[in-house]
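FIELD: query
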Amino acid sequence: MKEAGRILELTRQMVKDHVRPGISTHHLDQLAETHIKSLGGIPSFKGYQGFPGTICASVNEVVVHGIPSKKVILKDGDIVTLDFGVNYKGYHADSATTYPVGEVSNDIKKLLEVTEASLYEGLKYAKPGNRVSDISHAIETFVKPYGYGIVEEFTGHGIGRELHEDPFIPNFGKPHLGPILKPGMTMCVEPMLNLGTKHVRVLKDNWTTITTDRKASAHFEHMILITETGYEILTSLKKE
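FIELD: result
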């Protein structure tokens, strides 16, 4: 899983350099697929329950599961969430980041900052002896003062031989509930925050999920390992 995470992060670092106005999300998808395979990995998402892309590329009001397309051209002021999945020798890694495209508004900058910060606030509680909802509660408590909508339909999750495993990790809720965290557990924590309402809906393609008020949404996700003393991020090359 560490190697899957390393391949994912190397691919993310390469693809993010191509995020700019005039690029299609299909082009980013092709870059990701080629790079993952060149490093010995397999795209986890491609074909997963019928999903057609290597990455999810979700632009502006698209919360999650945006399908890469030649018709979706990034423009100045957009944001795009790139969600990557890598399978290495039967084990998965999963991680997402929302990127600004060119110059974005101050409101959007703040949304990105708070969403990313909320991930790390939640991870402070990812340690042995705590319960899953301690992470959830920490994220919600951090986000509430900003007034952003916290997406409830999609959550973090366990990960391993399967892309999505128990336990599910909401980004809201009361503390001290759910399974006890133990060393060796691997999971993905992934807050999704909306500039407006928390409510979302799935489009007719059965994948693309948008905010009901069409306001922007941001999404940050890391895959972690619970250690003896805390957690280790497996989808980052930086030691955090």
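FIELD: remark
The chain has a mean pLDDT of 97.
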